[in-house]
Write a structure and sequence with these properties.
EC number: 2.7.8.8
Region (Disordered): 1-20
Subcellular location: Endomembrane system
Oligomer: single chain
InterPro entries: CDP-alcohol_PTase-I (IPR050324), CDP-diaglyc--ser_O-PTrfase (IPR004533), CDP-OH_P_trans (IPR000462), CDP-OH_PTrfase_TM_dom (IPR043130), CDP_ALCOHOL_P_TRANSF_CS (IPR048254)
Helix content: 55-70%
Membrane topology: Multi-pass membrane protein
Number of helices: 9
Length: 280
């Protein structure tokens, strides 16, 4: 007996009447905030190219421009309600190039190459520190106190490294590999910036500053004076500002420790039991 059955005509009509499954709608990419991110990425790429050609002053300027653009993309995304997961990932990758790989390569070309293996080890410590810091930032973003960064933020670390280069180049130190004290200063600065990025030392984030609030008139005057001071001698003033900021975290840590206050910026415990020791 034949077990095959011919489908009923009505069943075929029912199948034809059913609407075809809709294809998932493709998500677009917000162009405005990602333009700032791409511009910041270009700043890091430009800095590497300039360092390869011996233009270390221009390389430092490229990194500082990338810092300004990087500080704008997130704010633009929030102001225009165009935040997205794509933008967050793009921002992290851009930061790794502009504030991780670029400063390490620039410093290596500027001074560390003369130290041989010690030089590229210091550059790698900085580069890997930036990668670890960015990865930790992305995974801990929901549990960290918004008022503080956990460790030195990578743009500030890049400003320390490239700021030293910018200041010394502006002062006329060109043949750096022949100046022993300057080579070791570059070595120490690179290690300090790289290792401080992966510490648990709290650095003020300025994220609780509300630009929509009214402020006294003197605040506007102070801002105008600050801009004037920076334009008077940008390399020295900017480097000095980031040196102070790069040390401020340890001051905050010491003050909190001496007063018996908690020094961790982790607001709540994470779900990963293996990571508990990293936040204390």
């Amino acid at each position: 007996m034949n077990q095959n059955t011919t489908p009923d005509r009505g069943d075929l009509d029912d199948d034809l009447d059913e609407p075809a499954p809709l294809r998932p709608r493709r998500k677009g990419i917000y162009i405005l905030p990602n333009l700032f991110t791409l511009a910041a990425l270009f700043g890091g790429f430009y800095a590497i190219v300039m360092a390869m050609n011996g233009r270390f002053d221009q390389a430092a300027i490229g990194v500082f421009c990338a810092m300004v653009l990087d500080s704008l993309d997130g704010r633009v995304a929030r102001m225009t309600n165009t935040t997205s997961a794509f933008g967050e990932q793009m921002d992290s990758l851009s930061d790794m190039v502009s504030f991780g790989a670029a400063p390490a390569l620039i410093m290596y070309e500027w001074a560390l190459k003369g130290l041989g293996k010690l030089g590229w080890i210091a550059a790698f410590v900085y580069c890997s520190g930036a990668a670890l810091r960015l990865a930790r930032f992305n995974t801990n973003i929901g549990v960290v106190d918004k008022r503080y960064f956990q460790g030195l933020p990578s743009p500030a670390a890049a400003a320390l490294v490239t700021g030293l280069i910018w200041v010394m180049d502006d002062m006329g130190f060109r043949g750096v590999r022949d100046i022993e004290w300057l080579i070791w200063l570059a070595f120490a600065t690179t290690l300090y910036a790289g290792l401080t990025m992966v510490t648990n030392v709290p650095f003020y984030s300025f994220k609780d500053v509300n630009f929509k609030r009214t402020v006294p008139f003197i605040v506007i005057v102070a801002i105008a004076l600050g801009i004037a001071v920076i334009t008077y001698h940008p390399p020295l003033v900017l480097f000095g500002v980031f040196v102070v900021y790069g040390l401020s975290g340890y001051v905050v840590y010491g003050v909190r420790k001496s007063r018996g206050r908690p020094v961790s910026v982790i607001a709540t415990s994470t779900d990963e039991p293996d990571e508990r020791g990293l936040h204390r």
